[in-house]
Amino acid sequence: MVMTALPVVRAVKKSLARRKKERTALVWFSPSAPAFTNTEADKLAKFDDIVFVCGRYEGIDDRALSLLKTFGTVKKYSVGEATLTGAEVPAMAIVDAVTRRLPGVLGKDESVEERRTASPAVYTRPEVIVWEKKKYKVPPVLLTGNHAKIEEWKKAKKKK
Q1: Which domain, by its residues, includes 152?
Q2: I want to staple 60 with a disulfide (CB 3.0 to 4.6 A). Which of 18, 44, 55, 137 is the partner?
Q3: CA-to-CA distance for 127 and 78, rounded, in angstroms?
Q4: What is the per-residue pLDDT across 67-86, written as a single tens digit (0 to 9) for each?
């Protein structure tokens, strides 16, 4: 089943009635489109408005894509190789990836995960967890407060 073009185009037009089209991005999802990346999230974060066009099942009549280009910049993305019934979940993932780049959302820019060395392993208190008579400890280097050694440890963990 393919969604009809005109109702989708009318919905987008109505959603943009009071917006400046030169500062608007329209996101179109397609399994054959380039993969959405953090670089693309940085680009989308510069727009004032983003409209996500979410198809269902087999998608939206491709003529809608041609018509939507008159409303603003159209960005086509896929979010992986999995086949989904609709684009709502990929849209939520992109909203999250873009939102965290907006000033003040995470407190400071250094909090954006991919801009710092992140470890695939994370720990919190208590320093030792006892489970079925066995102790599970936080790696000692993380308790030192030595930021250089901690960064070194993170980089080593990331490579594994």
Answers
A1: 117-159
A2: 55
A3: 41
A4: 999 888 999 999 988 888 88
